[in-house]
Amino acid sequence: MKHSLITTTGKKTSTIDLPGEIFAAKVNRTLLSRYVKVYLSRQRSAGAKTKTRGQVTGSTRKIYRQKGTGRARHGARKAPIFVGGGVAHGPRPVKRELTLSKRMARKALAVSLTAKAKKGQIVAVDGLEKAKKTGELQALMDKIGGTRFTFILAEANLAGAKFVKNLKSAESTPYKDLNAFMVYHGGTLILDKAIFKK
Questions:
Q1: Are 163 and 131 in contact (CB under 8 A)?
Q2: What b/e sequence results for 32-64 when a residue is b if at least 16 CB atoms lie within 10 Å of its CB, and e otherwise?
Q3: For the CA atoms of the chain, what is the radius of gyration?
Q4: How many Cβ atoms from other residues are within 10 Å of residue 91's Cβ?
Q5: Is residue 104 within 8 Å of 33, Cβ to Cβ?
Q6: Domains in the chain: boundaries
Q7: Residue 198: its pLDDT value, please?
Q8: pLDDT tens-place string over residues 17-32
Q9: Is the distance from CB of 5 to CB of 13 less than 8 angstroms?
Q10: Rounded to an integer, what distance in angstroms lies between the CA atom of residue 157 and that of residue 5?
Q11: What is the per-residue burial (b if ≥16 Cβ within 10 Å, else e) of 110-135?
């Protein structure tokens, strides 16, 4: 699959071969939806937790005698009815069981990249490692056009990520950490030419 290759100044230099198994996969929206659901569920910590009467600090001594006081019978001060006591039926940590196999996750990534390629939201750039300041990347984004950008960098060129941090409408990620969720919600993808060497 041929795709145009441009420089950081926006000039077209040549073309590059995009792997067909990644950028021309069969679009499976059900798989992509499932991946996003699993990804979001794993972002939730669900760590809310309260202490029961057996976990709070306090004495277990009976606070007053059972009979003869005219008051309701009570045991320890740690009962849920008292201030400072335990909580009855409070929230507990929830273990998320949603999973997706590595094979399906890789396939979902290919599906999301294919969808982006069909929309024309993929740009291959040569020379990203030569960028010396944020303004150069901003000028590149202005020429490409769009509201949101994701720079996908090769391991050798991660130094450029510090310039992307200063851009409000852009973020960066190493190619090895790329996933279908980031692609789907990443706007226009700016691919570092160096990621195609392997």
A1: yes
A2: bebbbebbeeeeeeeeeeeeebeebeeeeeeee
A3: 28
A4: 11
A5: no
A6: 2-44+97-196, 47-95
A7: 62
A8: 888 888 888 889 999 9
A9: yes
A10: 17
A11: bbbbbbbbeeebbbbbbbbbebeeee
Torsion from C-alpha of 102, 113, 20, 107, nearest 10 degrees: 20
Which of the following CATH numbers is that of domain 2-44+97-196: 3.40.1370.10, 2.130.10.10, 3.50.30.80, 3.20.20.30?
3.40.1370.10
Q: How do strand 149-153 and strand 122-126 relate by DSSP bridges?
A: unpaired
Residue reference for tokens 């073309």? 15
Q: Which residue has 């950008």 as its token pair? A: 149
pLDDT attached to residue 9: 79
Report how far residue 171's alpha carbon sits from residue 54's, in angstroms, rounded to the nearest whole number. Answer: 47
> What tokens does 128 get?
């990203």
Residue ranges in the chain whose pLDDT is less than 70: 198
Q: What are phi and psi of 72, to 5 degrees?
A: -65, 150
pLDDT, position 134 = 85
Question: How many other CB atoms are there within 10 angstroms of residue 191's CB atom?
Answer: 25
> CA 118, CA 138: separation in Å to the nearest integer?
24
